[in-house]
Amino acid sequence: MNHRRSALLALTALLAAGLTTLPAGPAGAVEVERVRNGTFETGIDSWWTSGVTAGPADGGLCADVPGGTANPWDAAVGQNDLTLAKGESYRFSFHATGAPEGNSVRAVVGLQVPPYDAYYEVTPQLSVSGNAYTYTFTSPVDTPQGQVAFQLGGGAAPWRFCLDDVSLLGGVAPEEYKPDTGPRVRVNQVAYLPGGPKNATVVTEATEPLPWQLKNAAGTVVASGRSVPRGVDPSSGQNVHSIDFGSYRRAGSGLTLAADGETSRPFDIGTAAYERLRLDAAKFYYTQRSGVEIRDDLRPGYGRAAGHVDVAPNQGDGAVPCRPGVCDYTLDVTGGWYDAGDHGKYVVNGGISVWQLLSTYERARLARTGHAERLGDGSLDIPESGNKVPDILDEARWELEFLLRMQVPDGEPLAGMVHHKIHDEQWTGLPLMPDADPQKRALHPPSTAATLNLAATAAQAARLYRPYDRRFAATALTAARKAWAAALAHPDVLASDSDGIGGGTYADPDVSDEFYWAAAELYLTTGGREFRDHVLNSPVHTADVFGPVSFDWARTAVPARLDLATVPNPLPSRDRVRRSVREAADRYLTTLKAHPYGMPYAPEGQRYDWGSTHQILNNATVIATAYDLTGSAAYRDGALQSMDYVLGRNALNLSYVTGYGEVSAHNQHSRWYAHQLDPRLPRPPAGSLAGGANSGIQDPLAQSKLQGCTGQFCYIDDIQSWSTNELTINWNSALTWMASFVADQG
Ligand code: 9MR
Fold first, then answer.
1. For the segment 448-467, what is each residue's pLDDT rounded down to a tens digit?
2. For domain 32-170, which CATH number applies: 3.90.70.10, 2.60.120.260, 3.40.50.300, 2.60.40.10?
3. How far apart are the CA of 309 and the centre of ligand 1, in A?
């Protein structure tokens, strides 16, 4: 399990004074003050300072903060040894000033020892005249080693910080988190296609049909009808109706839908937004690149120094050793994409992401409605634009080159296998620019899954790059064959599910689907009998592989089926493969039709998966592929309708794609798009998909706000919620595929 560490300072407390008991709080609970000498009556007793010149002043504590430090925690004041109780709510308050104007303090309640978990943190901007700040949170843990810290570093210029009236009051009433869900009429806030389905959901107490009106931007009613009561939706717990206004087909912008006295957020009817989204979703990858400077002229506001290129404080990816005892060589594993909001690079997640970007292109070339030229050279504004190679292939190659570097060199015992991942030794805090990561990097052991991911994607690359770069295609195919042979020789080397310190585990106990996928891609590229036989003899070939979640980084049988079904090939049982895709699409359509929010996703017990938005899009991809195979409008409409949930037709009335829709996720968990924590940093770029509702709520922030949440409500647009609100390469690849499909239907 991964844990995001927020670096607090482990400094020894000076004094441990007694606790003050205050009058009884709500419901008879006793309110207990945890901070000692919070009003600085006795100077700065009980407080530690680090990297600042601090002392008593103006009845409080003032600190002169030097300029030019790298991290917030390089200059700080705080207090240790505070007892926190799991499930108890605390009111954290203080008074602070900052001069000159515009400086921020990162105020954290967390763990004083490694791994420095932050249980609560805020970064208010301070004023010269001063303000009182008050927050309530619930502790996710029991610990006697709680810490309050005020982190002040990271700024270029020196400044002065003053603090008073610090309090951490236990036993207060928990603050109920109520998301602001806006109007009860829920629509796709971006756009419906003129010739596509148009559906909405109304949250209402009403049990009888309600009248609705569709209005144009001028407020004129252009269509009307009656809603369909759908009862209580188990994925949200809400009583809902659905509205179908698909018979209205005129393009326009700023339309709204009114029902039950409420008016939806505005939306368009048109294709333009999807043409933009297809590119923005794919442009996401350039700014995730490791090992190269991001050019501000190509991504205004997003330029940054190259990360992990052996320039201090980075320890670099140029010559990375293995974890102790794993190998005695080093590898140059520069390049690739950062996985998500962390600085790790993981082969199995890189694999599915590359596959999906390449498949976006391959589909656009092969499908009746495909427009490969829209992803062509010059489409994505990347450094390679203008090299006569489709930009989406150039972008995927950035990751492929990295995957190739992860292969164990010839002459080593596991030659041909592929290292599972490379990442930091410890989890790092937020924000942290890639070039500022001071951690040691290490290669983790090779795994059969990683090896087969390289085999599959390098084989797929070989057929797609051949027209543009024969040498690269040949290199890729050689590596794919070598990986395949190595995987056969070492068929059960699994990544450890406890290897999750400093990076995600990406452990997968079953690699039969990875074997099937790699064999399928090698077969499609080479026609080789060995690969064909493996496909035909694999139990995965005849199994029902289309579950409630069709595919993801750990479930790779469906990618194989989709490619065997769509990429021309003479496989003997190909009809059955194609039928399996159609039948699966029928099932996802049944789910979609039964769902009052119109999505092809109904996990067992409404337990939403980590990254549920991309699971919905991946299920939609199966439906879309059935359309490509058959041309049947029911599949096309189902795939199109699936986008609605992601773009706003949901219980939270929120688009999960940054910059798309009137209200969209924009605080995704990322170490460098950390605007929420540091106003000088940008938000995620337009077109970044948030992971979305996750019933597991594994992070402390989500645990404190979302305990007991139902399905769709298990989400919060907060940078600290890494389990519900991260951005990742494998989620944006699902968005890229689907956005491209939808744009092609315009
Ligand atoms: O997407 C991954 C999810 O399927 C796993 O359950 C989870 C826990 O291992 O990890 C997710 O992946 C994260 C990875 O471990 C580290 N980088 C960020 C990824 C997205 O949160």
1. 999 999 999 999 999 999 99
2. 2.60.120.260
3. 25
